[in-house]
Design a protein that fits this description.
The complex is a heterodimer of chains A (224) and B (474).
Chain A: E1 4-8, H1 12-24, E2 28-32, H2 38-42, E3 47-51, H3 59-69, E4 75-79, H4 83-89, E5 96-99, H5 104-117, E6 125-128, E7 131-134, E8 139-142, E9 147-148, H6 153-164, E10 170-171, H7 172-180, H8 190-202, E11 212-215, E12 219-222
Parallel strand pairs in A: 1-2, 1-3, 3-4, 4-5
Antiparallel strand pairs in A: 6-7, 7-8, 8-9, 10-12, 11-12
Chain B: H1 2-12, H2 15-27, H3 29-49, H4 62-75, H5 81-94, E1 99-103, E2 109-113, H6 121-124, H7 132-142, E3 148-153, E4 164-169, H8 171-222, H9 240-295, H10 301-331, E5 340-343, H11 344-361, E6 365-369, E7 376-379, H12 381-398, E8 404-412, E9 415-422, H13 436-449, E10 453-459, E11 462-468
Parallel strand pairs in B: 6-8
Antiparallel strand pairs in B: 1-2, 1-4, 3-4, 5-7, 8-9, 9-11, 10-11
Helix pairs in contact in B: 2-8, 3-8, 9-10, 10-13, 11-12, 12-13
The chains are: A alpha/beta (224), B alpha+beta (474).
Chain lengths: 224, 474
C-alpha cells in the first residue's frame, strides 16, 4: 500500500513538477490548488504538504484546521517567505518547515522523516547492518543468527526514538526528555548507562559501536 | 462675540490675574483691614461689657483726665457753691462712671456725685468734715487706692483757699482702659497674624494647585499606554496651564497620527518584503525542481557538473534573499522578540546536530567541546538559532578551505563565553563566495536585540567568533 500525501500548492509550475517528483518516489499525491476542501481530501492521507501563501484561506489557517481535524497527520509547511516573517505568524502547528527554493531530495528526506516519526513509513522493516527492525511489531532481529534481540522497555524506547529520527543526531537532552518525559539534568548518567546496555545487545562489538554512533560533544545517531 | 468672551474668560482666569488678586488683597491689609479691626474690637468690647454701654475711652488716659480736672478746677476758682455744684453735675453727666465731690475752704464736703445712687461704696468713705489728718491721708493714699482719686484745688492752687475737688475713678475702668490698650495691640497682632497667615495659606494653596496640575501634566507625559504613547489628558481651567494641557493634547494627537502612519508604512514594508520574497522564490523553486528533473536525463559528466553548479547557486541565491529580506525587516526595529531563560549550550548542541551532516559531507574536522554545566542566558530561541545558522553557514560557505569547525566554551574575565572557530582564510580574504557581510549584519542586529555581545578575530589562518553575555549568566 502506497503512502498518500495531500499537497496544496497554488503555483501550477511548482505543483506539477513537485507532484510528479513525489509520485516518482512512490507516493500517491493528491494535489489541491487551494485550501478549499482540504479537510475532506486529507482523510485518507498520511501527511500534508502545505504552501504558506495560498489564495483565499492562507496556509496557516488551512494547516491549523487540518491539525484540529486530524491531529495525527503530520504537516510540512513550504514557505516562500522569510523565516523571520513566518516566525511572527507562528508555525507551532506544523511538524516541519521548508523554505523555497528547496531541493526535491530535501523535501523527500523530510517527508520520509515525518512519516517514520509518525509510524507510517513506506517500509515495513528496516535493515541496519546486521539488524532487521520491525518497528510496527516492536521486534529487532539479528540477521546473522536469526535470533530476536530482547530489549527492555526503556532500551527499546531509546532505540526507536533514534530510529524515528534516522540519520539525525539527537542530543542527550532530546533523547532523555522524549523517553523519560522529564527535564534532563546535566551530569545525569542514566542515559549513558542505558545506551551502554543497549549497545551490548545490539552491537557486534560494543567497544566499537556501528549501530548507535556517538557524536562527540552533541549526542547519538543511528545512521540509515 | 463668542471669541471675545473666550478671551475675556481666559484673561480673567489667568494665573497672573489670580496671583495679582492675592497680592493686592495682601496690600490692602494695612489701610483697610487694620482700622476695621479696631472697630471690631470696640464692638466686641461693648458686647462683652453689656448694658449700660460705657464709653471707656474717656477713662483710658489718666493724664488727660488729670489735665481736664485741673483745668476745670482753674475755671471754678471764683465760682459760687451753686456754680461749682452745677459744673460738677455737668461733668458727672459726662463722666458717668466717676465719683465726684468737692470740699470747700472750711473742710466741709459740699457735694458727692456717685455714678450709682444705690451703691453705698461710693462716697461713703468721704467724711463730712475733713480734718487736716484726714486730708493728708486721703491725698497720700489717693494715687494708690481704688478708686483712683484725682484731686485739684479750686483755682488750681493751694493758696486760693477755696477747697478742692475730687474725682474718683474705679480702677476697674482704668484697668479696663489699660487692658483695652493692650487688648487692641493683641488684637492688632492677632488680626495681622491671621491675615498674613491667611495670605500665606492662600498663596500656598494657589501654588499647590499649580504644582498639582503641573505634576499631573508631567505624569501624563511620562506614563505611556500599551502602545508606548502618552495618552491625552482632561483639560481643566483655561488658564496658562490649561492652554499647556491643550497644547499637550494636540501634540499627543499628532504623535498618534504619525505613529499610525508609521505602522501603516511598516505594514506596507512587511507586505512588500513578503511579496518580494514570494515572487523571487517561486521561480527559483521552479528552476531548481526542473534542474533536478534534468539530472535524471542522460547527460555528459560536464552537463551534470553544470546542473550541480546551477543548483548550488540557486541555494546561495536563496540564502541571499533570506538575509536581504530578514535584514530589511529586522532593521525596521519593530520586530518583537520573546526572551526566555535558555540553556544556550543546549541550543548550540541542537544547532550543531543539524549542521553536522553538512560538515561531514564537506569532510570537515568537527571539534565540539561543550562542557557539562548549562549556560543560561535570556535569549529568543528562534533568533539565537538563526544567529548560529548564519555563523555556521558562513563557515561552510566562506571557510571551507580550512576544513575545520570548532565549537567550545571558554572562561574569559570570569565569564563563560561561546567560541566558534574555523581554519578558513579569514573574513577579510577574497572568498569564493560573497555575501558574508549581510549574514553577519543580521547576526549583529539579532545580538543587539538580545543584548548579547560578540567579537570576531579573523586572521589569514582562521576566524574565531566569541559570543558573550555582558550581564553575566542568570
Amino acid at each position: 500500500m502506497s503512502v498518500t500525501l495531500l499537497y496544496i500548492e497554488d503555483d501550477h509550475e511548482i505543483g506539477s513538477v513537485v507532484s510528479a517528483d513525489l509520485s516518482e518516489r512512490g507516493y500517491s499525491v493528491r494535489w489541491l490548488r487551494s485550501g478549499e476542501g482540504a479537510t475532506e481530501e486529507a482523510a485518507p492521507c498520511q501527511l500534508a504538504i502545505l504552501d504558506v501563501m495560498l489564495p483565499g484561506l492562507d496556509g496557516f489557517t488551512v494547516g491549523q484546521r487540518l491539525k484540529r481535524a486530524y491531529p495525527k497527520i503530520p504537516i510540512l509547511m513550504l514557505s516562500a517567505r522569510t523565516s523571520i516573517d513566518d516566525k511572527l505568524q507562528g508555525l507551532e502547528f506544523a511538524d516541519d518547515y521548508l523554505t523555497k527554493p528547496f531541493h526535491p531530495d530535501e523535501l523527500a528526506a523530510r517527508i520520509e522523516v515525518l512519516l517514520r516519526r509518525n509510524g507510517a513509513s513506506v517500509q515495513d522493516s528496516l535493515t541496519l547492518k546486521h539488524l532487521v527492525v520491525y518497528e510496527g511489531d516492536n521486534r529487532v532481529i539479528n540477521a546473522q543468527t536469526q535470533e530476536e534481540v530482547m530489549l527492555t522497555g526503556k532500551q527499546f524506547q531509546i532505540f526507536s526514538y533514534l530510529l524515528r529520527h534516522l540519520g539525525q543526531i539527537m542530543t542527550k537532552e532530546q533523547i532523555y526528555e522524549a523517553v523519560w518525559g522529564e527535564a534532563y539534568l546535566e551530569g545525569d548518567k542514566t542515559l549513558m548507562v542505558h545506551i551502554r546496555y543497549l549497545r551490548e545487545k545490539l552491537e557486534l562489538d560494543p567497544g566499537n559501536p556501528e549501530i548507535i554512533e556517538t557524536v562527540r560533544g552533541i549526542g547519538y545517531r543511528v545512521r540509515a | 462675540m463668542r471669541g471675545l468672551g473666550r478671551i475675556r474668560k481666559q484673561r480673567s482666569s489667568s494665573l497672573l490675574s489670580g496671583y495679582l488678586l492675592i497680592i493686592v488683597s495682601a496690600l490692602l491689609f494695612i489701610p483697610v483691614v487694620l482700622p476695621l479691626s479696631f472697630v471690631l474690637y470696640n464692638m466686641v468690647n461693648e458686647v462683652t461689657k453689656g448694658a449700660p454701654p460705657v464709653d471707656t475711652s474717656l477713662y483710658s488716659s489718666v493724664a488727660a483726665l488729670e489735665t481736664m480736672w485741673h483745668k476745670e478746677a482753674l475755671q471754678l476758682e471764683d465760682a459760687s457753691s451753686e456754680g461749682i455744684n452745677e459744673r460738677l453735675h455737668e461733668l458727672s453727666r459726662k463722666y458717668t462712671e466717676a465719683t465726684m465731690f468737692w470740699v470747700d475752704g472750711q473742710g466741709m464736703t459740699q457735694l458727692i456725685l456717685t455714678p450709682d445712687e444705690g451703691n453705698p461704696d461710693h462716697g461713703s468713705e468721704v467724711p463730712e468734715q475733713w480734718t487736716a489728718a484726714e486730708a493728708i491721708f486721703f491725698m497720700k493714699e489717693s494715687t494708690k487706692r481704688d478708686p483712683l482719686a484725682i484731686v485739684a484745688f479750686m483755682g488750681d492752687r493751694v493758696d486760693a483757699g477755696k477747697g478742692f475737688m475730687v474725682m474718683q475713678i474705679p480702677n476697674k475702668l482704668l484697668n479696663k482702659g489699660a487692658y483695652g490698650g493692650v487688648g487692641a495691640w493683641a488684637l492688632y497682632y492677632f488680626v495681622l497674624f491671621v491675615l498674613f497667615g491667611g495670605f500665606a495659606l492662600v498663596s500656598l494653596l494657589f501654588f499647590r494647585k499649580i504644582r498639582k496640575r503641573l505634576l499631573q501634566l508631567q505624569t501624563a507625559m511620562t506614563i505611556t499606554g500599551p502602545d508606548r504613547m502618552p495618552k491625552s489628558i482632561m483639560t481643566g481651567k483655561l488658564d496658562e496651564i490649561g492652554r499647556l494641557e491643550e497644547a499637550f493634547n494636540t501634540m499627543v494627537a499628532k504623535l498618534d497620527e504619525s505613529r499610525k502612519r508609521e505602522i501603516e508604512e511598516e505594514e506596507l514594508r512587511k507586505r512588500l518584503v513578503s511579496n518580494l520574497s514570494h515572487d523571487l522564490r517561486t521561480p527559483l523553486t521552479v528552476i531548481r525542481s526542473h534542474i533536478h528533473v534534468m539530472t535524471k536525463e542522460s547527460l555528459t559528466p560536464q552537463g551534470q557538473q553544470s546542473l550541480e553548479l546551477m543548483d548550488k547557486r540557486i541555494a546561495d541565491l536563496s540564502v541571499l534573499i533570506e538575509n536581504l529580506l530578514s535584514y530589511n525587516l529586522l532593521n525596521s526595529g519593530r520586530i518583537t522578540l520573546k526572551k526566555e531563560r535558555k540553556d544556550v549550550l543546549r541550543l548550540l548542541r541542537e544547532s550543531a546536530a543539524a549542521w553536522y551532516p553538512v560538515w561531514e559531507k564537506e569532510n570537515f574536522e568537527i571539534d565540539i567541546d561543550l562542557e557539562a554545566d548549562p549556560l543560561f542566558w535570556m535569549v529568543d530561541e528562534v533568533w539565537f538559532r538563526r544567529i548560529l545558522d548564519n555563523l555556521f553557514q558562513n563557515i561552510v560557505r566562506h571557510a571551507s578551505s580550512g576544513l575545520y569547525v570548532g565549537i567550545s566554551t571558554e572562561s574569559r574575565n570570569g565569564q563563560r563565553v561561546i567560541l566558534i572557530t574555523d581554519h578558513g582564510r579569514g573574513i577579510q580574504s577574497p572568498s569564493d563566495y560573497k555575501g558574508a557581510g549581510l549574514g553577519l549584519s543580521i547576526v549583529d542586529l539579532l545580538m543587539k536585540h538580545m543584548e548579547l555581545e560578540w567579537d570576531m578575530e579573523s586572521t589569514g589562518d582562521g576566524t574565531s567568533i566569541v559570543i558573550f553575555n555582558p550581564r553575566d549568566e542568570i
